[in-house]
Amino acid sequence: MTAPAPDLQLEADLTSEREHLAASRTALKRMREHAQALFATGDKVAGDAYSAETLGRHMARRVIELTDNPDTPLFFGRLTFEPTEEASEEASEKGHRYHIGRRHVTDDTGEPMVLDWRAPISRSFYRASVKDPQGVTIRRRFGFVKGTLTSFEDEDLQTDHAITDSRILLEEIERPRVGPMRDIVATIQPEQDELVRADLDESICVQGAPGTENPNPGLRHTLLRC
Predict the structure, then answer these.
(1) Within a domain: residue 2?
(2) Is the pLDDT higher at 174 or at 180?
């Protein structure tokens, strides 16, 4: 549900998120330029021809992975974790906010600006609930039109009366399936997340064709792992 707040505060929050998106895109560009520089000098730093070729293939893949598509959202959600008064030298998610997206993006000091959806912390974006908030106070989902951030919803997981039916999530799931298959990482359901993150030594069989129209929203998309 959208948390009640004055219109001015909502507009300020939306502006802040758009600024974070712009800053994240700038950081991603910097990461790609750094990877391109390493790719260009790979044969000079490698000790032999085999190492140079291996490094070159790795950096070439890295450059492709860091390519930004302005029509694709760089992040689709945000987690706000409950604060803590405990002091610790260990990194902790408590008291932090994390934007969840398709790839990991860091600032020039190495601090995360966007977390990869496959990261352990990102698991809570898909599995946290009112019954099991997993330390999350607010789960935010973002609405985009192509690459432009247009809206957001806040789901309060600390109240027994939270409404868990996200309009943004349902609209994305129900959007007409035309053209190439869409990236579904923003709409993965809890049961699907368990399958995706299952240990590789487990044999899993998931039945159904891509885009299967099933009465159960949790089975609207099929994830296959080989």
Answers:
(1) no
(2) 174
Report whether pLDDT(88) > 50. no
Indicate if 127 and 181 belong to the same structural domain: yes
Range of the domain at 210: 188-226
Residue-wise pLDDT for 136-155, tens only, equals 999 999 988 888 898 899 99
Give a yes or no: residue 66 inside a domain.
yes
The lowest-confidence range among 133-137, 184-188, 211-215 is 211-215
Q: What is the DSSP string of 123-191?
A: HHHHH--SS--TTEEEEEEEEEETTEEEEEEEEETTSTT-----HHHHHHHHS---SSPPP-TTS--HH
Q: Comparing C-alpha atoms, which of 57, 181, 25, 192 is closest to residue 123?
A: 192
Instruction: Note whether 181 and 136 are same-domain residues.
Output: yes
Compute the C-alpha angle 96/99/105, nearest 5°.
110
pLDDT at 106: 94
Q: What pairing do the DSSP bridges indicate for beta strands 97-101 and 75-81?
A: antiparallel
CB within 8 Å of 136: residues ≥ 6 apart: 79, 80, 81, 82, 124, 128, 157
CB 158 within 8 A of CB 137: yes
What pLDDT is attached to residue 36? 86
pTM over 0.90: no
CA distances from 126 to 30, 150, 172, 192 (A): 29, 22, 15, 9
Residues 68 and 148 in one domain: yes
Task: Assess whether 66 and 168 both reside in one domain.
Answer: yes
